[in-house]
């Protein structure tokens, strides 16, 4: 499980995408900002769900090994 966490941290550093600059963000219309914010929230929620799923699977594997 620890291997997964360390691999995840390395991957996060590689996948980090630059955020919108403040001026670019303010140039967007309100609808565009809401849409972009909604998309980013959905993407982060998907990533969190994947992480939780993988942690649960690892926990189940460890639990089954102990039996």
State the assembly state of the protein chains.
Answer: single chain
Biggest beta-sheet profile: none
Strand content: under 5%
Question: Secondary-structure element order, as H and E?
Answer: HHH
Mean pLDDT equals: 80
State the end-to-end CA separation: 18 Å
Radius of gyration: 18 Å
SS-derived structural category: mainly alpha
In terms of per-residue confidence, which ranges show pLDDT below 50 for 5 or more consecutive residues? none
Helix content: over 70%
Shape: rod-shaped
Can you count the helices?
Answer: 3
- Let me know the number of strands: 0
Explained architecture:
The two termini are 18 Å apart. The chain is an all-alpha fold and 67 residues long. It has helices at 2-15, 22-27, 30-66. It contains three helices and no strands.
């Amino acid at each position: 499980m620890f291997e997964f966490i360390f691999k995840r941290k390395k991957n996060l550093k590689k996948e980090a995408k630059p955020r919108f600059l403040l001026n670019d963000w303010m140039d967007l219309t309100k609808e565009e900002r809401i849409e972009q914010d909604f998309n980013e929230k959905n993407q982060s929620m998907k990533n969190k769900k994947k992480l939780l799923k993988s942690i649960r699977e690892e926990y189940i594997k460890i639990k089954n090994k102990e039996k």
